[in-house]
Amino acid sequence: MPSDTLAQHAAVPETPDKADTPRIVPQRRFGQWTAAAVVLVLLALAVNSVLRNDAFQWDVVADYFTTTAVLRGLWLTLWLTAVVMVLGFALGTLLAAFRLSANPVLRAVSWGYVWLFRSIPILVQLLLWFNIGALYPRILGVKTVDLLGPVTVAVIGLTLHEAAYAAEVVRGGILSVDRGQIEAAQALGLSRWRRWRRIVLPQAMRSIVPPAGNMLIGTLKGTSIVSVIAVQDLLYSVQLVYHRTYQVIPLLMVATVWYTVVTSLLGVGQYYVEKHYARGTERTR
Amino acid sequence: MSVMVDIRSVHKSFGPLHVLKGIDLTVRTGEVTVVLGPSGSGKSTLLRTVNHLEKVDRGVISVDGALVGYRRSGDRLRELPEREVLRQRTRIGFVFQNFHLFPHLTVLENITEAPVSALKRPRREAAEAARRLLARVGLADKADAYPRQLSGGQQQRVAIARALALEPRLLLFDEPTSALDPELVGEVLDVIRDLARQGTTMIVVTHEIGFAREVADTVVFMDDGRIVEQGPPADVLDRPRHERTRAFVSKVL
């Protein structure tokens, strides 16, 4: 019996000549070609209508693109975004730590915060903070309206809103780190702070960065909501111009293009940050 | 010979599950103790209580003359602050079934992390020591690799080097070869065998009976949260006195 098997095995390896093997023809994908053609035509029509529509007034867009008023608005939008992101994530990380703590009071407080601030629309919240003087006319002896100007109100409102979402993002990142990593660090005698900073956080960052990048871009555009309380951000700055000149569309295009430019730059930045935290995830060197 | 580990009437429950039901065990300095037993017998939990990764509900454990995780005050045991527990752990090496190497750090960084941060060793000195340890486990050329680029056997050898970097008085192994492909088990056991030969005090939880027979000074057989039988491998493995030990040994061999 074993010799039979051997004989059969020996008979198999007859590699057929290349010339004899039939040529392989991939399936023709007519549907894909048609779909691509239709989409390209529609895209061309759309681009054409934008470029050929004089109502966009691209020359006016160019005129206002780098005026002092617009750049000032852009600057406010940028630093407001930065401040809200930093403060929001700082508070969010604290809330995530509360939520994951062994202390039931801290857990409940964190849960309650996230529930409350995710429930209130940001627009409603900003208007409430803007009118907080009606509830507390004076804070520490100072008139509330003097203490909380529109910009301060914008920072407070956006930060509190941001923190609720950041808390969930950070919590998700921490939970994604294998429990064994913490045990190994404990077994090696690493201090609580060192475990957190050197072992947990760098690994959590891999799952935190993509949604955080999403939030950063969302916040950048979301800050435009502060125009309702007359904070002179990018949107409000162009609004001020078009209320005067009635060139509504070209000035909105100024804001649109700036938002797009900054968003694109942030996307590039995110790529490098992600690459940094992906260390050790590939099998090959 | 002096006593390295002294475990006295240790009890541990997880909720309603009584996992350790009064364990007494002594490990002498320089000896290798191998703990055998079916899954769920409590052997891993016992090992984890030795460096306070699990807190005991009752009983005392001392390592190298000091109570682990507690200090005695009158007739009570008060739990030590975390800082103290961490300091105690630097003298007890622990090797996990699933290695638990830090994936975002290189092999060298994995090994130097604890000496640098917990023992405040200068980084350069720690790196030199780490390279010597890597050579000892046969991985001198892998210092700059990331854990995921290594085979399971290599990762476990790095994990052993990482535990050794603290120059512990005692090494604990929690099923060090159970997560490995069969052909990689040998290289890890070789390293542990080598450590045994050099007189390292160890407690090894494992399913490798052949290894126990060869390396152990004492074999402990656990079942259902109790130590059923203990003694030299020749006694416990070849002439088991208890029915349960006999059944287990015949099944595994």
UniProtKB/TrEMBL annotation, chain A:
InterPro entries annotated for this entry? Answer: AA_ABC_transptr_permease_3TM, ArtM/GltK/GlnP/TcyL/YhdX-like, MetI-like, MetI-like_sf
Q: Which domain of life is it from?
A: Bacteria
Q: Where are the transmembrane segments?
A: 33-51, 74-98, 110-130, 215-236, 248-273
Chief localization: membrane
Q: How does it sit in the membrane?
A: Multi-pass membrane protein
Report domain ABC transmembrane type-1 positions: 74-267
Q: Which Pfam families match?
A: BPD_transp_1 (PF00528)
> Which chain positions lie within coiled-coil regions?
none
Segments for region (Disordered): 1-21
Task: Tell me where it resides.
Answer: Cell membrane
Keyword line: Amino-acid transport, Cell membrane, Membrane, Transmembrane, Transmembrane helix, Transport
Similarity comment text for this entry: Belongs to the binding-protein-dependent transport system permease family.
> PANTHER family attached here?
L-CYSTINE TRANSPORT SYSTEM PERMEASE PROTEIN TCYL, MEMBRANE COMPONENT OF AMINO ACID ABC TRANSPORTER
Q: What is this protein called?
A: Amino acid ABC transporter permease
Which species is the source of this protein? Streptomyces viridiviolaceus
UniProtKB/TrEMBL annotation, chain B:
> Domain ABC transporter, which positions?
5-249
Q: How does it sit in the membrane?
A: Peripheral membrane protein
**Disulfide bond in keyword set:** no
* GO molecular function (one): ATP binding
| Record InterPro entries | AAA+_ATPase (IPR003593), ABC_ATPase_HisP-typ (IPR030679), ABC_transporter-like_ATP-bd (IPR003439), ABC_transporter-like_CS (IPR017871), MetN_ABC_transporter-like (IPR050086), P-loop_NTPase (IPR027417)
Location in the cell: Cell membrane
Keyword Transferase recorded: no
Judging by the UniProt lineage, the source's domain of life is: Bacteria
Q: What is its main location?
A: membrane
* Keywords, comma-separated and alphabetical: Amino-acid transport, ATP-binding, Cell membrane, Membrane, Nucleotide-binding, Transport
Similarity annotation? Belongs to the ABC transporter superfamily.
Q: Under what name is this protein listed?
A: Amino acid ABC transporter ATP-binding protein
Record lineage: Bacteria, Bacillati, Actinomycetota, Actinomycetes, Kitasatosporales
